[in-house]
Write a structure and sequence with these properties.
The complex is a heterodimer of chains A (572) and B (289).
Chain A lengths: L22 H10 L36 H27 L3 H19 L6 H25 L12 H11 L1 E2 L6 E9 L2 E8 L2 E6 L2 E4 L3 E3 L5 E4 L3 E2 L2 H6 L1 H6 L1 E4 L2 E6 L3 E7 L1 E4 L4 E4 L8 E6 L4 E4 L16 H8 L1 H4 L2 H30 L7 H8 L1 H4 L2 H11 L6 H6 L9 H30 L2 H9 L4 H29 L2 H5 L20 H10 L6 H25 L2 H6 L1
Antiparallel strand pairs in A: 1-11, 2-3, 2-8, 2-11, 3-4, 4-5, 6-7, 9-10, 10-11, 12-13, 13-14, 14-15
Chain B lengths: L11 H31 L18 H9 L2 H32 L5 H11 L8 H14 L8 H26 L2 H9 L4 H12 L1 H17 L2 H6 L8 H11 L5 H23 L14
The chains are: A alpha+beta (572), B mainly alpha (289).
Function (chain A): Part of the ABC transporter complex MalEFGK involved in maltose/maltodextrin import. Probably responsible for the translocation of the substrate across the membrane.
Keywords (chain A): Cell membrane, Membrane, Sugar transport, Transmembrane, Transmembrane helix, Transport
Pfam family, one (chain A): BPD_transp_1
Chain lengths: 572, 289
């Protein structure tokens, strides 16, 4: 911590780093500061303000600055640490020629050095770690999702056009009589598979990127490579464990690819589909025996389409503009049930927050009494649902609601198809979420109750307030002050509580005539099935849907914050 | 210390009985499914269909199966390491920034606070694709923090937790009278010293609760862990136990129940450990009048 300061003897009178320009000014400033003058008005409303150049040595004991040797040492330590981390981080980026990454690391390092080495008092000293973490792991994913929403990324549209061409060519490789053969050794490098190939006394290394000559290979008795610098040769057991990967691996070469045949041989085959840059199309006979055909590149769809309308499965990622966002609104498969799902989604999130908060606060209040016994035992037991792994307990609850052998029916002697009827299914997911969520509210309410000064309640009692009035006018407003941001967070979480619905009902029960939307579906489970369902992964469309979900939640959050006192608290 | 005025005049004992009745009812609601899991864990048959609320018999066959047929202890060590580190790191980082938001006034403070809340409304699991992009880049350059690394996932979890924790802790800091830090400042301390010597010790309850919440959220986290920690050595409890039930749900239910209970042990332990910090009325007497 750079703000760490000690007042050691040696430190006295040493100017701090960065202060050399105007040590006098700082030293004299406190004497003129009203806050520092003894006997001055109490500094009730003066808060430490983050104004640059505000004398930090305010009210220094005569004879020394607090920024002594300790502070200097702390700054040097910070300097060393930041530079060391930066050097470690930048080395692989620079060696890979990644200048954007290098520039980002340099900018972050510069910001860190500036913030932590300047003697000024800056809020940034406190805020930098949070800022960096939030930027990297929250802001960037959101922004990136929004950019993905503008593309057709998904199964068959994952990479660039060149990658798609390579995939088309290598996957169409067929063996031909008289094609080149190699002795194969399967090896590993940095976790990736590599083929070590030997033919005619020459050695090559092949990966999915391509083939290159191999230096420093040791040839064994059978003509196979037994060792090579930088590669780990797999044992036959290891190789058979990865046989699926090995069969898949095609090393692209001119006019075809090298594929394995078993674990010790490889052949070079000819690609039956080849890309022709002249017509920007893929030509060949497709599945081997068919007539010669041409698939033209369609830059709008990001795939190769033949004259008869068929397309090759491997495509590439292209920008589709607002098509995904528009599809989410106009595609009848998607928007038909949007309002119904949205309505239940609102009810679900609101009910979960209200129920968990009400029960949590009620229990916290019941236990918050000076003469209450066994509080600790109650607290430990009541918080147990929160300690249980949620995903596991969701599955347990699902089985407890089972009609035939479910515990709920057995214990209460009922024969209810809990998860099979829309109403009971909705009741069930709410009950499960109440069970999972109320201990959290209970914990927070317990913590918040302890911060309410007893004087407030005593004063209210002296003024003749009844117990209900004391609760309504003193305890509850103060509790809500602490709880409301968490309730809004809880709302946002439950609005998208994928596990809470998906693991219990999977969105069901589904009406007989419509298997796409169930009674307990939230927008997010509904989107999930649409985007990742039978048609294969459509990340672009899913991103567009999640942008909508996010906008809805963000708007609701902001509106609820305006209604609670949170924003007033922000302004305080 | 924090002496709450007594219950409504008259019927004090009755009030206490009601309080106990409510507490017992809620405790029963809380314990009912857990009891089922306990009995399923002890159930000698180890299947879902034979599990009852009260154990019909008891042996440790399910536990023995779990320990011998799965790498349960590796999952366990990974989960505790990740959750513990995430809790410690995110509370430390959040407390520092919460102090700035609570005590300093600076340009961008309001926007920063609101942005922290709004940004975390984003459905995390749909950000899986971008997060995967980030981690592919990290894996290429710094494998120690990349895919299949507990350190990288820890960093990701910390990043996901700082927003809500900053809010939680800031709310508590706001209730600590500013007169206390002002007194420290007048006595010649820096804000950093006031933070460490006054605000932090007084905030032990909220720091404990935040750490507990993060620990629980992290040890329960499934989706991110299932995507980023796929190696045999790096799986967490959530991923491992889920795979157990995905294979054979009925037959493995006993083992699953044992694993569920053992997963809860570190959380309960952390709660017990932190409970002494959740003490009454720390600030109630600090500033009188």
């Amino acid at each position: 911590m750079s703000t760490r300061q000690t007042r050691t003897g040696e430190g006295r009178g040493l100017p701090r780093r960065g202060d050399t320009g105007a040590p006098r000014q700082e030293g004299t400033a406190p004497r003129t500061s009203p806050e520092g003058s003894p006997g001055g008005p109490p500094a009730r409303d003066r808060r430490p303000r983050a104004v640059p150049d505000r004398p930090r040595a305010l009210a220094v004991p005569p004879g020394g600055w607090p920024g002594g040797a300790g502070a200097v040492a702390a700054r040097f330590l910070a300097l060393g640490l930041i530079v060391a981390v930066a050097l470690w981080a930048v080395a692989p980026l620079a060696s890979a020629g990644n200048w954007t990454g290098t520039a980002i690391v340099a900018a972050v390092t510069a910001a860190g050095l500036y913030v932590y080495l300047t003697p000024r008092r800056m809020p940034a000293k406190y805020l930098l770690p949070t800022t960096l973490l939030v930027l990297a792991f929250q802001v960037f994913p959101v922004v990136h999702t929004m950019s993905l929403a503008l593309t057709n990324i998904g199964d068959g549209h994952l990479g660039s056009k060149q990658e798609a061409i390579t995939a088309i060519e290598t996957s169409s490789v067929r063996r031909e009589p008289g094609s080149a053969e190699y002795r194969l050794t399967v090896a590993e490098r940095d976790g990736g598979l590599a083929f070590l190939l030997a033919a005619g006394g020459r050695a090559y290394a092949g990966t999915a990127e391509g083939l290159r000559p191999l230096e420093g290979a040791t040839l064994g008795p059978g003509g196979r490579i037994t060792a090579a610098d930088g590669y780990t040769v797999l044992t036959s057991a290891q190789a058979s464990a990865r046989s699926a990967e090995i069969t898949e691996l095609a090393v692209p070469v001119e006019g075809g690819a090298i594929r394995s045949q078993g674990l010790s041989r490889a052949y070079q085959g000819r690609a039956e589909l080849t890309y022709d840059a002249g017509c920007d199309c893929v030509t060949g006979s497709g599945s081997g025996s068919g007539p010669e055909k041409a698939w033209r590149a369609d830059e709008e769809q990001g795939r190769f389409v033949a004259a008869d309308g068929t397309a090759l499965p491997q495509g590439w990622k292209v920008d589709v503009g607002l098509a995904n966002l528009a599809a989410a609104l106009t595609d009848p498969r998607i928007n038909a049930h949007f309002l119904g799902v949205f309505g239940w989604n609102l009810v679900y999130a609101t009910a979960v927050v209200a129920l968990t908060a009400a029960l949590g606060i009620a229990v916290a209040l019941a236990l918050h009494h000076p003469r209450m016994r066994a509080v600790r035992a109650y607290r430990t037991l009541i918080v147990l649902p929160y300690a249980m792994p949620a995903f596991a307990m969701l599955l347990v609850w699902r089985d407890m609601f089972n009609t035939d052998f479910g515990l709920v029916n057995r214990v209460f002697g009922l024969d209810v198809d809990w998860l099979g009827e829309p109403f009971t299914a909705r009741l069930s997911v709410l009950l499960v979420q109440l069970w999972l969520g109320f201990p959290y509210m209970f914990l927070i309410a317990t913590g918040a109750l302890q911060t309410i000064p007893a004087e407030y309640l005593e004063a209210a009692q002296v003024d003749g307030a009844t117990a209900w009035q004391r609760f309504r006018k003193v305890t509850l407003p103060l509790l809500m002050l602490a709880l409301s941001p968490l309730m809004v967070s809880s709302f946002a979480f439950n609005f998208n509580n994928f596990n809470g619905v998906f693991l219990v009902t999977a969105g069901g029960p589904f009406p007989a005539d419509n298997p796409t939307v169930g009674a307990t579906d939230l927008l997010i489970t509904y989107t999930f099935r649409l985007a990742f369902g039978q048609q294969g992964a459509q990340y672009g469309l899913a991103s567009a849907m999640s942008v909508y979900v996010y906008l809805i939640v963000a708007v609701i959050s902001i509106v609820s914050f305006r209604r609670t006192r949170v924003f007033q608290e922000v302004d305080r | 210390m924090n002496r709450r005025p007594g219950a409504a005049g008259g019927g004090r004992a009755g009030g206490l009985v009601l309080r106990h009745a409510a507490a017992v009812a809620v405790t029963a609601f809380a314990l009912f499914p857990i009891l089922f899991v306990v009995s399923a864990a002890l159930n000698p048959l180890g299947t879902l269909s034979s599990a009852t609320l009260l154990p019909g018999g008891a042996d440790l066959g399910n536990a023995a199966d779990l320990l011998t047929t799965t790498p349960f202890l590796t999952w366990y060590a990974n989960s505790v390491l990740i959750a513990g580190l995430t809790a410690a790191a995110s509370v430390a980082v959040s407390a520092v920034s919460a102090y700035a938001f609570s005590r300093f006034r600076f340009a961008g403070r309001r926007i920063g606070l609101v942005a922290l809340l709004v940004i975390q409304a984003f459905p995390q699991f749909l950000a899986i694709v971008p997060l995967y992009v980030i981690f592919s880049v990290i894996s290429d350059n710094w494998p120690a923090f990349g895919l299949n690394s507990v350190w990288g996932v820890t960093l990701l979890y910390v990043g996901g937790q700082v927003g809500v924790n900053t809010w939680l802790i800031k709310g508590f800091f706001d209730t600590i009278p500013k007169e206390l830090d002002d007194a420290m400042l007048i006595d010649g301390c820096t804000p950093g010293q006031a933070f460490r010597r006054v605000v932090l010790p007084l905030s032990a309850p909220v720091l404990a609760i935040s750490a507990l919440l993060v620990f629980i959220a992290t040890i329960n986290e499934f989706l991110v862990a299932s995507v980023f920690l796929t190696g045999d050595d790096s799986r967490t409890l959530a991923v491992g136990l889920f795979s157990l039930l995905a294979d054979q749900r009925n037959a493995n239910f006993g083992m699953f129940a044992v694993g569920t209970l053992l997963t809860a042990v570190p959380t309960v332990a952390v709660f017990q450990f932190l409970q002494r910090y959740i003490v009454h009325g720390l600030t109630a007497g600090a500033v009188k009048g």
